[in-house]
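COMPLEX REQUEST
Ligand: zinc ion
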Amino acid sequence: MELRKDPITRSWVITGDDVPDTAPRSEVCRFCADTSAQAQVVSSRPGGPGGTWSTRAVVHPSPLYHIEGEPARRADGLYDRMYSVGAHEVLVENPQHDRHLWVATAAEIEQFLLLAANRIQDLKRDQRFKYVSIFKNYGSNAGQEFEHPNAQLTATTFVPRRVLYELRASRDYFSQKERCVFCDIISQEMRQNQRVLEVGDDFIAFCPYAPRVPYETWILPRTHDASFERSAITRSGSMRELGAILRRTLQRIRTITEEFHMVLHTSPNALHKSESLGYWKTLDDDYHWHIEILPIVSAKAKSYTFKEVYYSPVGSETAVARLREAKIES
Ligand SMILES: [Zn+2]
Ligand SMILES: [Zn+2]
Ligand SMILES: [Zn+2]
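STATUS: Structure written out below.
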């Protein structure tokens, strides 16, 4: 597998002929606390009821990116290609096989969020990596790989397309108004109060004005910060509130559909010696980290197959009303 750049959209894709996985499928879960399968543990957090760890990061059993080597970016006529150098980890959310984010306690989710923050911070010390992504796919239509509660992490030598769009747009907005577009969105959403799902001391959850899919929901810190990991590590206690709001939001969404994609958007690696370093000068002021949840409403699969223009047949105002009224535990 290698990385190739689309010269029109300037986005990188990972491509090549995949070798079919012929290894026998094991019956035991390789991520459970008492598993017999050997995992390559990268990092773990202590504690957990009756366990030695509460959450941990392991190397992905069949990684898309490999940690050794240099990307060796090179030309191929007008095209660009490079080796798929990077990190690919599974973040095991909980030692228990059935303790998903919507049933775990806020304290357990806090540990998972702190693990994620530590992994991002650690990988950003590697100057080869421009971006660290954390995402979760739940449900077969979402491309879920393992049953055990998990999210995945990739550290890449490029910034993923969607984040790049956001970074460019945030920079443009800032250069015109000297304000963060996300901070402005938060204040308008709070003022209008038509799409807000929940407001806490440190976080807000709302359905975005122009959703890509029905019931799309974003969670943002109310205090400006471009970097999730800095926020998580310096504002101790805030991750427990985020854990609670995440748990409730997923409970609400699960009253509509079980399947979803979730992604964390944080600042790129500012340590990276980039020729376009000027580009990052206002990064701390113009970008604002957040979590996006994209539920999969299967009956409306149309919005997934025809992506030239997003089609979302439930308006944000209707979506938020249904999610707010959803009966949840807490
Ligand atoms: Zn398991
Ligand atoms: Zn902001
Ligand atoms: Zn985003």
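REMARKS: The chain has a mean pLDDT of 90. The chain is about 25% helix and 25% strand.
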